C-alpha cells in the first residue's frame, strides 16, 4: 500500500514538473523575441583622425550601439582617412568604416585586394571640400596655389585624392608646382596659424570642429571653387563623377565666411563593410545608424543629414544583404 502511494506521489510530482515546464516554455515564448538571436561578439570600426568628423561620429555611434547591441564590443581605430579605411575593411583588418564614394570608386577601379567583397550599409552625409587660407592671403583660386606650401592630407586620406585632382584640373602639377605637405586635419590648422603652411585642403562634414576652432582663434577665409574648375574636375569620368557642385551655407563658419556662401565640391560618404559580416549584425548596425541620427546629430551636425529616404543610394557599392533586410523591414 505504501509502495503504491509512493508511485502515485512520484507520478504527480513528474506531472506537476511537466506542467511547470510547459508554462515556463509558454512564458518564454511570449516574452522573448522571435527570429535571430541578438548579435554578439566584437567589431573594429575604422574612423579617421581624432579631430575629424569620422572619428567624432564613430565615438557617438559606438555609444548608440552599446545601448542597442549590448552583447557586441566595438573598438574604434583611428586612421588617415577614406583610402586607408577602405583597405582595412577590404582586407579584414576592420569590420566597418566610413569612406567617400570617390575613394571607393578608385579602389574598385584599381582592383585592389578585397575590392569585390566590399558592401555598403548606409549613405551617410556629404563631405564638402574646404580650401582654407589666412584671411590676408593673396590666394583667390586653386591656380594661385602655385609655389606655395599646401597641406594636402595624409597619404591614406580621401582629401589627398580630391586635392590632387583639383590642382590637376586647375593646371597645376600637385607634386612639382607646389610644396605638398602630407598632414591631417589634426595638425594642419596649427601649421597654418604658425605660418608653416600657406593653405590646406580639407574634405569633411559641416562644420568640421578643427576648422571651426581655427576660425575662432585665427583669421581665415575659404577659397571658392569656381564652376569652370568643377566642370574640368568631373570631365575625367570614372571616380570623378562622384563629385558634384555644392554651396557651403554662409553660417557654416560664420567668422571665416563673413556672411557669404562659398561654392565648392561635395562628395557622399558611405558606411562600408564586406560580405564577410553576418547579416544579422549588419541589419542591427544599420538600424542603429538610422535610429540614432537625431541623437548623434545634436553633437555632430553632419549626422543630421542621414536620411532613410536616400540611405539606400550607395553607388558604387551594392547593399549588404543585412542592410537590405533592414530597409525592407521599414518599407511602408
Question: How would you sum up this structure, described in words?
Answer:
With about 325 residues, the protein is of the alpha/beta class. Strands 1, 2, 3, 4, 5, 6, 7, 8, 9 and 10 form a 10-stranded mixed β-sheet that branches. The chain contains 12 helices and 10 strands.
Summarize the structure.
The chain is built from twelve helices and ten strands. It has about 325 residues and is of the alpha/beta class.
Q: What would the principal axes of the Cα set say about the shape?
A: globular
Considering DSSP H and I runs of 4 or more, what fraction of the residues is helical? 25-40%
H/E order of the elements? HEHEHEHEEHEHEHEHEHEHHH
- Share of residues in strands: 15-25%
Biggest β-sheet strands, sense, barrel: 10 strands, mixed
Structural class: alpha/beta
**How would you state the average pLDDT, rounded?**
90
Stretches with pLDDT under 50, minimum 5 residues: 1-6, 16-34
Gyration radius from CA atoms, angstroms? 26 Å
Number of strands: 10
Number of helices: 12
Distance between the termini: 69 Å
Amino acid at each position: 500500500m505504501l509502495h503504491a502511494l509512493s508511485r502515485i506521489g512520484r507520478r504527480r510530482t513528474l506531472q506537476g514538473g511537466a506542467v511547470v515546464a510547459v508554462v515556463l516554455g509558454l512564458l518564454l515564448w511570449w516574452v522573448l523575441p522571435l527570429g535571430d538571436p541578438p548579435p554578439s561578439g566584437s567589431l573594429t570600426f575604422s574612423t579617421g583622425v581624432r579631430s575629424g568628423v569620422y572619428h567624432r561620429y564613430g565615438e557617438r555611434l559606438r555609444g548608440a550601439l552599446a545601448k542597442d547591441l549590448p552583447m557586441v564590443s566595438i573598438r574604434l581605430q583611428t586612421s588617415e582617412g577614406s583610402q586607408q579605411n577602405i583597405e582595412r575593411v577590404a582586407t579584414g583588418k576592420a569590420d566597418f568604416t566610413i569612406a567617400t564614394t570617390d575613394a571607393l570608386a578608385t579602389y574598385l577601379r584599381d582592383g585592389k585586394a578585397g575590392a569585390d567583397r566590399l558592401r555598403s550599409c548606409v549613405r551617410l552625409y556629404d563631405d564638402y571640400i574646404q580650401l582654407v587660407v589666412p584671411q590676408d592671403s593673396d590666394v583667390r583660386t586653386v591656380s594661385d596655389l602655385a609655389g606655395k606650401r599646401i597641406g594636402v592630407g595624409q597619404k591614406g586620406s580621401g582629401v589627398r585624392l580630391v586635392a590632387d585632382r583639383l590642382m590637376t584640373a586647375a593646371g597645376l602639377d600637385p607634386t612639382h608646382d607646389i610644396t605638398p605637405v602630407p598632414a591631417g586635419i589634426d595638425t594642419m590648422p596649427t601649421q597654418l596659424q604658425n605660418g608653416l603652411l600657406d593653405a590646406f585642403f580639407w574634405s569633411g562634414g559641416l562644420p568640421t570642429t578643427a576648422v571651426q576652432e581655427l576660425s575662432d582663434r585665427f583669421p581665415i577665409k575659404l577659397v571658392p571653387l569656381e564652376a569652370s574648375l568643377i566642370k574640368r574636375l568631373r570631365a575625367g569620368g570614372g571616380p570623378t563623377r562622384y563629385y558634384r557642385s555644392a554651396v557651403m551655407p554662409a553660417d557654416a563658419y560664420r567668422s571665416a565666411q563673413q556672411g557669404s556662401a562659398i561654392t565648392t565640391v561635395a562628395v557622399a560618404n558611405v558606411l562600408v563593410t564586406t560580405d564577410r559580416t553576418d547579416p544579422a549584425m549588419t541589419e542591427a548596425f544599420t538600424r542603429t545608424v538610422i535610429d540614432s541620427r537625431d541623437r548623434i546629430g545634436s553633437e555632430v551636425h553632419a549626422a543630421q543629414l542621414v536620411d532613410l529616404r536616400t540611405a539606400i543610394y550607395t553607388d558604387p557599392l551594392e547593399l549588404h544583404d543585412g542592410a537590405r533586410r533592414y530597409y525592407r523591414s521599414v518599407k511602408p
